Amino acid sequence: MSHLAAPLTDMPPLTGVAGTDPYIELLKNVLTGAVYEESAWRREDGYHRDKFRPLKSLRQFFLKRWAKRGYLVVKAQHFDAKKRELGTDWPLFGYSMVGKRRLDQLEVAIRTIAAEQIPGNILEAGVWRGGASMFMKALLNHLGEGHRQLWLADSFEGLPKPRLAPDTKDKRHDLSECDFLKVSIETVSANFERFGLLDENVRFLKGWFCDSLPHANPGKLALLRLDGDLYESTMDVLKPLYQNVVPGGFVVVDDYLAWSGCREAIDEFRELHKIKAQMFNIDGTGVYWRVPQAQPSVAAA
Ligand SMILES: C[S@@+](CC[C@H](N)C(=O)[O-])C[C@H]1O[C@@H](n2cnc3c(N)ncnc32)[C@H](O)[C@@H]1O
Fold it and tell me: How far is it, in rounded angstroms, from Cα 279 to Cα 282?
């Protein structure tokens, strides 16, 4: 960790700010799939959260053939409520893998943005099935803040093959062949529609971050949520977009404490731009900080 990175402090308790509205609590449980124990079942297609390499075997060959015929082989597993709360398993169905606590943090952030009237739009880079973004959109609407644009940036075809030299941070994290992480723009759009959340203020930015974001124009941002896992997927968001986050705005990093490449990117960027804002630990995986009123200017690279 860089010498400039502020020590991590736990996120303040929700008391008095969030966590009490039954509609919002139900949304969290539905979006994370926690209302269905079967969402803990695991797809047997060679990938799951703790195993990054495809199984190159006869079994794999047959699983793929069955999948082509429309059969999905799943392994029944015990539902672990703690894992789902902390976002440390991948739900077979459900709309978000970030877990309840990271949705709690988004609730606090969006409520604060509304209460303090922090100007700007919201952008999530790395949306998968759209769940965390759907949560933010539902809450914005609920708070009468639906006029803010919500930008969804994703390849909509999974993670990139790490493009940086093989000795770099993302080397061990090649998930580019992981079908579970490939969710099309049509599916995400349909997910929003299913919840009555698709309107003209939901904007899609399709493409690899390094191609799409330098040319994107999402306006000023009250909240930037980074959820691209890799070093390069984190840097490729920060470089063009950090400067858009307004004072008082939130920068939320889904993977800081779980993915070393993501952590290196954040620490490097904060050190380079002398960002000293206090970072808060959400749940042992995600962190966030708020952009101070007077921060050194960060020119887009
Ligand atoms: C961990 S998932 C996001 C989880 C999501 N926020 C949720 O609520 O469950 C990571 C997503 O980032 C996308 N992604 C990662 N790196 C990317 C890049 N460099 N360019 C475009 N999309 C990327 C993947 O396609 C995937 O949808």
Answer: 9
